[in-house]
Design a protein that fits this description.
The chain is mainly alpha-helical. It is built from seven helices and no strands. The protein has helices at about 5-20, 25-50, 55-80, 90-115, 125-145, 155-180, 185-219. α2 (about 25-50) packs parallel to α4 (about 90-115), α5 runs antiparallel to α6 and α6 (about 155-180) runs antiparallel to α7. The longest helix is centred in the C-terminal third of the chain and has 35 residues, at about 185-219. The N and C termini lie far apart (about 50 Å). The model has no long low-confidence stretch (mean pLDDT about 90).
């Protein structure tokens, strides 16, 4: 058999094998990349709460566009995958809720930076944003370990859980102080942002629970 014929035969064999046993996407790497984008967006939110500049707000909007790209890519690969290393439901839940955290970061800064609310961050906004960042970075670390050391992800999940609980406590303190204000317009505007931050924490909590579910199933 000539070299050309041998090459053609090998190529045909590979195509047949690929159809019978399609290559499984590296979903652990995909989740690691998407969760890292969440950590990046949350870190930008902390920067915004500290500076209040429109430049940082634009970077968060740009980060949300990238987050959408990663979400669509990951969902497409999930829908087309012949098999997955873990439950499809867990993968889908992680992909959707990781993206929702990024969406929340964008929504918060757009509303604060707009003429509708035109709101400057206070100490509670900054404190809750820091909690969100700490939790998001812990979750990103946990998802990043799934391929190599999934058991270590349990400690990351516990760290993220502590950050979410701290965010929730800060939210309660913020509301308690806010309702002592006599400016009802300020109460309405600031309560909206506080609640947006709390919802981001709720999404992070779902991502954290999903991470723990995956760790348990892998270990």
């Amino acid at each position: 058999m000539s070299n050309a014929a041998a090459t053609a035969s090998t190529s045909l064999t590979r195509r047949i094998l690929h159809r019978v046993f399609p290559k499984v996407p590296n979903f652990f790497a995909l989740l690691a990349e998407q969760s890292a984008q969440v950590g990046h967006s949350a870190a930008l939110l902390v920067d915004y709460m500290g500076s209040g500049t429109s430049e940082v707000a634009k970077r968060i909007v740009d980060a949300e566009y990238e987050g959408d790209r990663l979400k669509v890519r990951n969902l497409t690969l999930l829908n087309e995958a012949f098999s997955t290393p873990i439950d499809r439901e867990d993968l889908h839940r992680a992909i959707i809720n990781l993206d929702e955290i990024i969406n929340s970061c964008k929504t918060i800064v757009v509303e604060m930076d707009s003429d509708v609310l035109a709101l400057k961050a206070d100490k509670y906004c900054l404190e809750m944003a820091v909690c969100l960042k700490d939790g998001a970075e812990a979750v990103a670390a946990g998802y990043g370990r799934l391929a190599s050391d999934p058991k270590a992800g349990r400690a990351d999940a516990e760290k993220s859980d502590r950050a979410v609980r701290s965010l929730t406590r800060t939210h309660r303190r913020a509301l308690a102080e806010l309702f002592n204000d006599d400016d009802f317009r300020n109460i309405f505007r600031r309560k909206e942002i506080y609640n947006q931050l709390l919802r981001a924490g709720d999404r992070l909590n779902i991502c954290n629970s999903t991470l723990l579910d995956i760790v348990v199933k892998l270990c």
